């Protein structure tokens, strides 16, 4: 999934994280969401390659028990095939018995921002920082 970090504003500012940093971030998010893990990954059965990944869940510490998407990524060769839409719908449906709210955090200019706009997930607040 490392190639999923190429392109977009995060790549421009931070570059591609190391394998160790990616695993550290994934481990952290899975720990945060261990209370109610809603994560999903999509595998190409022909070559066993991970095509998409969405790490999500409900943290015990999340105010009002909202579900949250911590990371969503689709490898470039699998983009524009409906994988991200499928994963978002899966998260919304899986979270629905517990909450009607799925919170997402995204960097403005990131590919995920375009996806969220496409599925009509509008901004509710913004935290602005300097480049």
Automatic annotation (TrEMBL):
Gene3D superfamilies hit by this protein: 3.40.630.30
InterPro entries (UniProt xref): Acyl_CoA_acyltransferase, GNAT_dom
Protein name, as recorded: N-acetyltransferase domain-containing protein
SUPFAM superfamilies: Acyl-CoA N-acyltransferases (Nat)
One Pfam family of this chain: Acetyltransf_1
Transmembrane residue ranges: none
GO molecular function: acyltransferase activity, transferring groups other than amino-acyl groups
Residue ranges of coiled coil: none
Domain N-acetyltransferase span(s) in chain numbering: 1-131
């Amino acid at each position: 999934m490392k190639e999923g970090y190429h392109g977009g504003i995060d790549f421009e500012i931070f570059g591609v994280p190391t394998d160790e940093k990616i695993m550290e971030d994934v481990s952290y998010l899975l720990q945060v969401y261990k209370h109610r893990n809603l994560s999903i990954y999509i595998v190409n059965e022909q070559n066993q390659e991970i095509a998409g990944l969405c790490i999500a869940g409900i943290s015990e510490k999340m105010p009002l028990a909202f579900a949250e998407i911590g990371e969503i990524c689709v490898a470039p060769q699998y983009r524009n095939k409906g994988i991200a839409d499928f994963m978002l719908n899966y998260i919304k449906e899986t979270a629905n018995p517990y909450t009607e709210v799925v919170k997402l955090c995204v960097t403005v200019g990131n590919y995920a921002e375009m996806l969220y706009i496409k599925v009509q997930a509008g901004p509710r607040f913004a935290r602005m920082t300097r480049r």
